[in-house]
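Entry:
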Amino acid sequence: MRLMLFWINVIFKRVLSLFKTSPVMVIWIFVIIGAFIFAAANRHLVIKPDNSTLVIVTLLLALFSVLASFKNYDTIPVLTLYSKSNIANKYILAGFFLKKAFINNILLIIFCILALDSASNIFLFLVFIGVPVFFIFLAFLIMYKKNNYANNQSIKKEKRALRMNPYIKTIIYDYLTPDFFALFALCVSLFIVITAEYTGNFNSLLAMKNQITYFIIVFVLFSAGFSGIIESIQNINWKYQAIITENSFKYHYKRTLHFIALAYGLLLAVFIIMGCLINPFLMFKYVFCIFIIMFSTINIAFTAINKLIKTVILCLLVVSTAWIGTLPVFYMPLSAIPVLITFIKAKNEYREWYLL
């Protein structure tokens, strides 16, 4: 009993620590999971994915885990932490990268566990068990070998370097945080599943109730994906921006828009095409709502308040905007009021980031 209480206490502290470090991602994951449970329990959403859909989403999540494994990880803190222990550095690094490999594949693991219930034969059952194990091992191997290669590789000045536009390079470096990447992967994966399910039963979309449900779900997914920018704004090297190049608010705002357009442009284009086939009028309304939430999220991200408060405010705006989207079209301009308010607040407060 005492041992069970001890592990419950450890799990609770780990979850609390994750919530403190990444509140945006944790809150949106719980919101999306809760929304899907509520929709499924009330039969607003019945998902019966076929085998091809399950395999495609599994491979997509596996691809995201592999790409995340090529990220550069700072191993100095963990080596410093165990510097006085008798553990060899290779074992310390192995444990560190194994933990990172599990974290990178957490979405794949969760999806495969859920997909086991839909496995129609023993082969798919074994696939959904074996794929997470294989890609955890693959992610660990990539990170471990990449770290060894980086440490052993001598710098060659005459080696031809990959030329990349510095503007694009700094955007990727500043904005592509683990929180943003995790929410992006979650948004893309669920968008593919939902769109595949609805297109598979296209005749059911003739009912207005099903049409509204589809547009609201996609709107919430885009909102969740955009919220990752809150963590990205904090990741910007503000000391460099303050001392070396004190860029204007317009520069940072435009750069953030470019990054979101680069990340979600293709997904939004697919949604517009799907929306035109389903209901052009609803498509126009909810694309407008998506742009409203996108600008609101950027504005909130630049304000100088706590991340948790930002997430709560954004959730309230998502709910209110989705509700306005169900009203007649002449109510739509009301959703632009929060954009104006948050923009004024962000423009007045963004310089406080230079004080960090």
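The CA atoms of residues 83 and 302 lie 39 Å apart.
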